[in-house]
Amino acid sequence: MPVNLSPPMQMVSICWWCLAARSHRVLRLEECPYFDSLAEQRLINQAISARRIVIGICLGSQLIGEALGAKVRQSPEKEIGHYPITLTEAGKQNPLLAHFGSPLVVGHWHNDMPGLTDQSVVLATSEGCPRQIVQYGNAVYGFQCHMEFTAEAVEGLIQHSEQELAAAKREALYSLERRNARVELSGDERETVALPRPAG
């Protein structure tokens, strides 16, 4: 959303934050001049106060948490691709999610995850990210995952993210090498070899 665009809240019945910033994290204005994170958070708080339906996707979910005072956290694993998410017990009881079934394969393109408030409830997790779907209020949800991905959308992301994908590939190979790089010493005794992190 451009910095100078502030839709009047009385005109908004459903607010969707479907943001896919190149860095996939909450940005400072000096890092990304056309995106004002604090302005977005103020708008989110206005929508929540006005009892609007607020849905945040990817960066949008992180902004909801930030707006409510819960800082973004780095996800245990970077996820790019299609991976299954699993509904928690709370997710299975949620009437808006229960019909999806579990596990459910969805799209991912993130390295971070939304923060949690004292009142928030995690509704879905994945192997690499424990906060895939978070409910912040009766009508406030954050989706770190992407249920809206289409083949065309993914193709566009790939075309515009060559450097990020190359870096993710190097990081994945590094993690795999660390996992497999062990030197046999004697019997069952093993020593992990320290590998230099990939550059870039």
From TrEMBL:
<dbReference type="InterPro" id="IPR017926">
    <property type="entry name" value="GATASE"/>
</dbReference>
<keyword id="KW-0808">Transferase</keyword>
<dbReference type="InterPro" id="IPR029062">
    <property type="entry name" value="Class_I_gatase-like"/>
</dbReference>
<dbReference type="InterPro" id="IPR044992">
    <property type="entry name" value="ChyE-like"/>
</dbReference>
<dbReference type="Pfam" id="PF00117">
    <property type="entry name" value="GATase"/>
</dbReference>
<protein>
    <submittedName>
        <fullName>Glutamine amidotransferase</fullName>
    </submittedName>
</protein>
<keyword id="KW-0315">Glutamine amidotransferase</keyword>
<feature type="domain" description="Glutamine amidotransferase">
    <location>
        <begin position="42"/>
        <end position="152"/>
    </location>
</feature>
<dbReference type="GO" id="GO:0016740">
    <property type="term" value="F:transferase activity"/>
</dbReference>
<dbReference type="GO" id="GO:0005829">
    <property type="term" value="C:cytosol"/>
</dbReference>
